[in-house]
Design a protein that fits this description.
With 159 residues, this protein is an alpha/beta fold. The chain contains six helices and seven strands; from the N terminus they run βαβαβαββαβαβα.
Length: 159
Amino acid sequence: MRRAVAMEVLPVLHNVYSQQRVVEAARIAYGLGYRVFIVTKASGSAAQAGVPEAQKLALKLGRTFACLPDLQDAVEVFAPSAILMFLPRKYAQVPLSEAVKGVSGRVLAVFGGADPGLTKRELELGTAVYPDGVEEDVGSTGMVAIALYMLKRLLQPGG
């Protein structure tokens, strides 16, 4: 299941209202070794308390944190070669292991931070994918953890 590719994955949590969800997603991303974590369209307690907490965590760990107004801004600023939009399996037809084949360069891994997740318009920016083997909706935080772990395993050299 693992293979070596030249790919830099940038996790993005989009459209989030929950302070706890921002902090948990940042911990997951940084804990799995991702150097950059991005939040887009944060509002409510996510913007007021979650974003500062995630920034503090990034500074403590020597990592990078970015908070941008909308998903389109992340696309403009980071200029990815591909965008993977993570959804539950019933809404996405492409398994993650297939989606990363032949992809290189900078990739945005986008996760919806609130229900219903990502809109049809937002989904047009990338490829709707699901983590292989995940049959049901595991929620936003579960999706971030599973997908980022799978990406890390898929991209390890010598796999």
